[in-house]
């Protein structure tokens, strides 16, 4: 179990404010979706939570400030999957996923490390690629491998930056279902940036809506995703139809300027 609290977090690029006063609380097990238009600060927020970017404010993990932890300890607590996946790596899929075990490795690879790698490959359905080189895979296949590497890391908090961006419709749905199952069955907390609102509504227990670098709204998808919010945040008129407790988004047209 893990508790993540972001308190009054702000970040600027070269004196240009990107995030302003971000605050939210999330607990495992669960999947938190960071949604919002391009440029709203989703990727930046993920990097601030991981400590890659040094921000103002506080990020607490189980009551401990992430900024106060040495990086090896952060890696045991947080697994991060970036949006851009290197396509020139000579490493095999197995070797790539094994790298996720680095925070736990000593002088040799232990049986528990090998078991974690195999389980991660099976969960993301990449075991057939085990001995192919990462550079020889498609973008979507590489994306699944990197999520598997994060899973093998065994960290209670996973940060995923648009994990379905390179995936087709079926694979995107399967990865999101897998991530949700891993969160709930494994007691993990997953925080992800995602663009597809319907996919986010199907898979996330909580949404944090960002607009102009601030939290516009947060809460369960059924409470957050309303036609008024979509019009205000995205500038799109849309219908929202709820089925089995899940809101489905049907974009209609760009919102007319008033």
From TrEMBL:
Pfam families: ABC_tran. It catalyses: an R-cob(III)alamin(out) + ATP + H2O = an R-cob(III)alamin(in) + ADP + phosphate + H(+). The keyword Nucleotide-binding applies. Residues 4-237 form the ABC transporter domain. Its EC number is 7.6.2.8. Keywords: ATP-binding, Nucleotide-binding, Translocase, Transport. It is an enzyme of class 7 (translocase). GO terms for molecular function: ABC-type vitamin B12 transporter activity; ATP binding; ATP hydrolysis activity. InterPro entries: AAA+_ATPase, ABC_transporter-like_ATP-bd, ABC_transporter-like_CS, P-loop_NTPase. SUPFAM superfamilies: P-loop containing nucleoside triphosphate hydrolases. Required for corrinoid utilization. Probably part of the ABC transporter complex BtuCDF involved in cobalamin (vitamin B12) import. Probably responsible for energy coupling to the transport system. This is Cobalamin import ATP-binding protein BtuD. It comes from Methanofollis aquaemaris. The lineage of its organism: Archaea, Methanobacteriati, Methanobacteriota, Stenosarchaea group, Methanomicrobia.
